[in-house]
Amino acid sequence: MDNNGQQNVDEQISIGGRVGSHVMTMIYGTTSRRIVLCSTTTTSPAAAAAAAGSSSSSSSIRVRAGRRAKPLPPLRCASSGMEPSAGTALYPLHRCKTLYLVRHAQGIHNVAGEKDFNAYMSQDLFDAQLTPLGWSQVDGLREHVKKTGLANKIELVITSPLLRTMQTAVGVFGGENYTDGVSAPPLMVENAGHSGRPAVSSLNCPPFLAVETCREHLGVHPCDKRRSITEYRPLFPAIDFSLIENDEDVLWEPDVREANESVALRGMKFLDWLWTREEKEIAIVSHSGFLYHTLSMYSKECHPTIRDEVGKHFANCELRSMVLVDRSMLGSDSPSLNYPGKIPAGLDLPSDIADQKQEAQKK
């Protein structure tokens, strides 16, 4: 699906995608299309032919009953599009999380850097804030999130602790304009980061959590260096900064730029960490480099079409929905929607269970 609108299609494509020994799996999805990136078993031509032969030899099925049954019509899987595929997969719902990945809106560094790449070295871009156009992008995405019902589904908003990502996060997923006299602190105070924007309420919205692991490339560029947490707290009173260990930015180094591979590995650790959270629907507001290198790592071994779709760069304030699947038993949540049925005894015993018992008695 491109950024100009949704396609009215209903399709599911499964493609293998495992990175080394890493067994986390991501499912890329939109409202009407879902692409599964998962490890699959390759079927050899011989095995496929044997399977096809087995299928054709048993295509005429008779019902076992006390009287003679009328033959059922042969199954024609190939013509109906129901042939088995090694690419499809099923996963328990309680081992999945839905992620809504967002790149921050346009910042002053984006404008300056597009004109002159050397501008990224300017101290004037330290912890860059959003531009007026960036705030317009935030308003547009906020309207989309509310219109689609996403605002009511998200249980947690995780944001990189830089000014531009926190401004984007509270602007898109926060409450309405803050009103003096209410007991809850605002998510953002008025004019935070010279935004010229009114305060944003923390009422009727999910909790917000700042996490260092989803920051942009570390080092060299002043725009990617954060302020101290002491400076941020008065600007964003309702954002939870408790997971950030150091008040000052000790991760950013003036002479060393973080390598792309390091960013990707950091992204994979971040996604592993998400399984320590109980929330199932999580919005993550991050940066172009972090999102690009993390998703590119997961989509390395996919079909080129899928790789290009998943691994392409994010536009400013773009949102993509993903499903994260726990194939390594990192998560420990129990299936809250499952119902433990009971196999009845006696005459109501299901036929497949009865067949198994009969075979066992013969041995």
TrEMBL record:
Signal peptide annotation: none
Region Disordered: start-end pairs: 59-80, 339-363
- A UniProt-annotated Pfam family: His_Phos_1
- Composition bias, Basic and acidic residues: 354-363
Top-level taxon of the source organism: Eukaryota
Gene3D superfamilies found in the cross-reference section? Phosphoglycerate mutase-like
Q: Which SMART domains match?
A: PGAM
Family under the similarity heading: Belongs to the phosphoglycerate mutase family.
Q: What does this protein do?
A: May play a role in carbohydrates metabolism.
Q: What is this protein called?
A: Phosphoglycerate mutase-like protein 1
Task: List the source organism.
Answer: Urochloa decumbens
